Amino acid sequence: MIRFMNNWKVAHLEELVEFTNGGAWKASEYVDEGIPVVRVSDIHNGTIILDKCKYLPQESLKKYMKNVISQGDLIITTVGSHPTQPGSVVGRSAIVPKSAHGALLNQNAVKITSVNLGLEQEYLAYLGKSQLFRNFIKSRARGSANQVRIAISELSKMEIPIPPLYIQRKIADILSAYD
Question: What is the pTM of this model?
Fold first, then answer.
């Protein structure tokens, strides 16, 4: 349901994006070189660090195309300790950098991609790093203090402000200058 906030629309994420869960692979499938696999442990400070990543064989790519991530995608971790705990990874977000373009996304994370022409992917990515987003995760994560999960069905209910495209671009430009 899209509604308006002043002159900005507000909509649920499910109306604007596509969610793709990361894949699950057996330890025996990993190899020393090949396609990088981005795990929750590779997400730090809003980006992806591939220094300690695992790899799948190149021939796996066709089989796992839905798990491929692209530069600019928003990645959200979906499992971790409760968001109020220090060091919790649930709800941690990253904007896929050029260095991780074409990598595969592992389980316990979701790729969020804009499918609406009125929503800039870069603006969406910065929303994923916002306090608004962190507060939403804190209120919707379910489980025990040791391990919680944020379900895609919950993420999809998040309402986000959608300013006009030119304002989305300005916001993204300003924030990218600080990255």
Answer: 0.87
